[in-house]
Write a structure and sequence with these properties.
about 900 residues, phosphoprotein, about 30% strand, nucleotide-binding, Beta-Lactamase, five-stranded antiparallel β-sheet, transmembrane helix, six-stranded antiparallel β-sheet, ATP-binding, 6 domains, 27 helices, alpha+beta
Amino acid sequence: MTFTDKQLVNKIIDHSPLGVCILNVESGLIEIYNKKFSQLYIAAAEAHSEQQILKVLNREFEADKMVISKVVREKNSFNGKELSLISNRNSKKDELVISPLYAPINMNNDTVTHVAVWMNESTEENTVTSGPELTLSQSEPIANLLSEIPSGTAILSGENFVFELVNPTYQNLVSGRELTGKPFLEALPEFLGSELEKSIRRVYTEGVSLNFTDDLVPLLNTDTGEPEDRYFNYRLIPRTNHEGSVDGVLLFTSEVTHEIDNKVNLERTSNNLNLIINMLPASVVIIRYDNLIVEMINDANLSYWKKTRDEVVGKPFLEILPDLADQPFAGQLRRVMQTGEIIDVKESPVLFTEPDGTIRETFVDYTYQPLTGLDGKRDGVLVMSFEITDRVLAQRQLEQYADQLSIANDQLSVLLNQLSKSESRFKYVFEKAPVAIGLLRGKEFIVESANRKILEVWGKTDAIVGSRLADALPEIQDQPFLGFLDDVYSTGKPFYANGISAMLKHDGELKEIFFNVVYQPISDTDGNIADILVVATDVTEQVNARKAVESSAKYFKMLADLVPVKISNALPSGEVTFFNRTWLEFAGMNFEDLRDFGYHEMMHPDEIQNFRKGLAEAASECRPHVSELRFKNTEGKYIWHLNIASPVLDEDGNITMWVGSTTDIQSLKEEEQRKNDFISMVSHELKTPLTSINVYLQMLLRKAENTEDQFLKKAYIQSLKQVRNMTDMINGFLNVSRLESGKLHIDKAEFDLSELVEEIKTDYKFQYSSHTVIFSANHSVTVDADRLKLIQVLNNLVGNAVKYSATGTTITISFAQYGHRLRVSVKDEGMGIKTENLNKLFERFYRVEQESIIGGFGIGLYLSAEIIEAHDGKIWVESEFGKGSTFYFEVPLS
């Protein structure tokens, strides 16, 4: 085979990101191939000579002769039938679905003498679309070869890196731009100074080849004029002239943006689901379909089964725990899926066979609840269980001692019975097994045995027993399964595959089915491979469900972004992992910028220290932290927010992440401030005329005391009492305003409690003459408190007792010492308080609804509670409706 520039052609083929081979049309044999192509068919190609590799490839690769004839006849490119392959690249087996692209190569004038076959992985993103016509300066075979590559390919020429050749796939990556004939930086100016530009120059100057995977490239969108973050795999190869000097750069590239996004979304969804079930205190496992595939399991259940996640997820229940086959669980699971009933069992025994052959007997309480799939049909079971082995064994220990001999005899009888039935049971289990099982005999793979399940999967009847597998299932001739069986038979190594696709004929139509499959070789007495056991599980519904979950991930993210509250997630270290759209719009940044800018940078400086201290305390106690904070918006203005940081705990009580909810309360704050300003203004304005009225009334009372008119004196006394009540009410409003603005001042000093008692005794005698006020103790006790504020609290409590009790009843005021605290109680014989109102009495402006005929604004008890709290004390009430109330408060002693 002769090319105009064989050196360049070989370099293009060798460094292509796809597997490629070139066929001779006349002989139909492969003449040239690259390493990636050989890896699709040969596990260790390096260990063979080129002649041996070509021999294997020409035997294993079956070219589509009909497509080749069409390519030669119409001198155009065409896709062949999809191939399912197990490749051996990267030293591991990968499942691949390949769409071969057959492209013509014109060698002699206008005659197609060779055909290039590009092995393109069949994904939506890699589909080759038609591109513009290209002007090529290289020889026509090379130009044809490059233009048909199903990945982005370009040749950059000279030290200015002029686009000498651009194939359609590369042009589609930057649609809307003219590339051919332009220098690289003129056509793509956004790459000036980028790592890609530097890499191209290095390849040109040093003659080295460079590879890049999942590389972030900010390409300009010609429609919006904005840069877009896109990810590419690309390879840079030096092109040499006939003198051996580098005169250009070959550039191969493919976009992987969609794969990167899918990978991130899938990992996030999986992590969140695992996090949720691992937070549950019970052992949890989700089992799907009639073959009982384990879809999800938490750590508690893995510990109980003594298995790892890789040993369990995606595998049948009875394959994971075959020793449970004789126990009722599999049948119960299927019954739940069939009937929808919930099965709840207590103290159920579960027997496990340990690796050393011993039996581990456990007991569990378990519940089976039906689950529905995306189509609304029951297809799974949620299993929640609690191991209660220790409790059951303790309860049954005495019974076991008494019945030990009887149990031993019973077990012996069972074992003998099982031994006699083992052969028939094996046949029964083989036939009734919930998984597909078949036995293939010899190198011809004669169907020796096939249970009902595998016949259903194959879409056949038991008439195929005794036939060659290739004859029984002719549709698999162009699929890889016979090749897999050949490898198992020749190497003696089992073959495993999960979610592998197969096209099988059911009722005359091909149907795509996904399997978890095992090909297990079975040796004869001489150690030679005699049979192959085929065990397959239909996971079509599971695969389709997984695809549906992946496709819905974006939908759930959109819902989170629609929430008007600012939502964020952070790791225990403080690293923020998520801001919803409301946060990003408030900050005017994208996620990366806001994350790097720092959550604390948006807080008001006066609140950062208290926030960090409060969050640290909440973290140490594993509880939510609630605070009011100011955050700076895009205009530089600080806005008040209610911030709730809630910890998410694992089963050991450790914090795994923080969920933040931040709500704008700026309007509430402004309204609160306007209300406080109004209260303060009105209170001050009302106190001025009351002061004057109080002075005049005192002067009139002094004059009335020099007369014999008792009515006049009582009238002045009552008027002064009302003025004092009005003043106390105004002071209450002022104190409420001060409390809310943080300006209420507590002036502590040590004083003797007995002196305070003597002072209020006299006041209460005249002020509350309608009731009997009793002081139960007046001994000397020194307290460290604000004297006037304590008198205000007592006045509020005694005033309420008088207000809510009948005339002539008794009010008892007691003082007692409890450790280092003074307890004061005020007991009345009034109407009492209903139980549902007790917890609300100390709230601001709260009044008992059924007694609204009694005057008041509901601030006295609220103010009293705030004063006591400011003394590091506490206040509470005990009451029975219709039988009176007792109010208590405690403050520290000196």
